[in-house]
Write a structure and sequence with these properties.
This protein is an alpha/beta fold. The chain is 32% helix and 23% strand. Helix 9 packs across helix 10. Belongs to the carbohydrate kinase PfkB family.
Length: 350
């Protein structure tokens, strides 16, 4: 039988699924957060004066970071001072370099060896315009045995955790319902699942998610509707909750902020404008900050505010470098309180 769960502080009318209590607070404590990245990447970021087709583009200032949703979330959680373990497959020279960089970030990891090479992601910062060009590779093909080993490592790492964060895309060979299997595993362990993915991986999840964090584009793709207004976005998120897919939805709106939708309430979070250095990984920073807030037993609304502070701090960093704890805490002090909204987008100050 699982041990008695500790309640997570949420909005007054929101009842979360039961989950395990927190481990002892010490340097050797088991992680409260376990992340899963099924498609990690070696993130390469370079600068160029101008990007033109056909011509050679002379680049400089190459930067290498370990990337992919769950790997980024783990690095950002660690930067915020919380215990975390990252689970991910790794293969080939790029996989070895990702693992070395994860170790340098002081992130404990459960690596699953795979036959094919871990992918790269390539970002070019065009100095003449300030534009950013992002090239994302599909990733290595994982055979069923490798997928099963990822789930085995996840089950072992998350046995005493509070939260599992499954973040990022699914690589070739992994079926679209893989995250449904992850949700079932979390249910068996009594661990809460936070899911940030897109495409088929998002559409094929039917139940078992605690918080789902799509972008508005990903939410459109999930429900097959344009979702041009806030009320339509709110209704789409509420539909996922009513169907039992998730208990809450956080919709990231980029420069327009974010929405939080629970079974009975909706909240609009204004953005915190800054001059961005790199937007790569900002969504992962938001997930990391939100999850850290939940491990501290903060209400979900406050945890989303902390996530926005983390995402804002990440925008100041080059490539996919981790934000600093000091910047996150500084921004958290000035992130505006959200507006409570109805299905008709009528707003009142929370």
């Amino acid at each position: 039988m699982p041990e008695e769960p500790r309640a997570v502080a949420l909005p007054p009318d929101f009842e979360p699924t039961e989950h395990r209590g927190a481990p002892e607070s010490s340097a050797d404590a088991k992680p409260m957060i376990v992340t899963l990245a099924m498609n990690p990447a070696l993130d390469v970021t370079i600068d160029a004066d101008i990007v033109r087709h056909t011509d050679k583009v002379r680049c400089e200032g190459a930067r290498y970071d370990p990337g992919g949703g769950g790997v980024n979330v783990a690095r950002f959680v660690r930067a915020l001072g919380e215990s975390v373990t990252a689970v991910y497959p790794a293969g080939g020279p790029t996989g070895a370099m990702v693992s070395e960089l994860v170790d340098q970030a002081d992130v404990p990891a459960r690596r699953v060896p795979i036959a094919n090479a871990t992918r790269e992601s390539f970002t070019v910062n065009e100095r003449s315009t300030g534009n950013q060009f992002r090239f994302v590779f599909p990733g290595p093909r994982l055979v069923p045995a490798e997928q099963d080993r990822c789930l085995d490592e996840l089950a072992s790492a998350a046995a005493s955790a509070e939260f599992v964060v499954a973040s990022g895309s699914l690589p070739p060979g992994v079926p679209a319902d893989f995250f449904e299997r992850v949700a079932g595993l979390c249910r068996e362990l009594g661990v809460l699942l936070i899911l940030d993915t897109w495409g088929g991986g998002l559409r094929h999840v039917k139940s078992g998610v605690f918080v789902m964090k799509p972008s508005v584009r990903e939410l459109r793709e999930c429900v097959g509707l344009p979702l041009e207004t806030e009320s339509e976005q709110l209704a789409a998120a509420q539909g996922l909750i009513e169907r039992g897919v998730t208990q809450a939805v956080v919709v990231s709106l980029g420069a327009e902020g974010a929405l939080l939708v629970t079974p009975h309430d909706g909240y609009r979070f204004p953005p915190l404008p800054v001059q961005a250095v790199s937007s790569v990984g900002a969504g992962d920073a938001m997930v990391a900050g939100m999850t850290v807030g939940l491990t501290r037993a903060w209400p979900l609304v406050e945890s989303v505010r902390f996530g926005i502070a983390a995402a804002t701090a990440k925008l100041l960093m080059p490539g996919t470098a981790a934000c600093t704890r000091a910047d996150v805490e500084r921004f958290f002090e000035v992130v505006p309180e959200p507006l409570q909204i109805s299905g008709e987008s009528e707003a009142v100050r929370d």
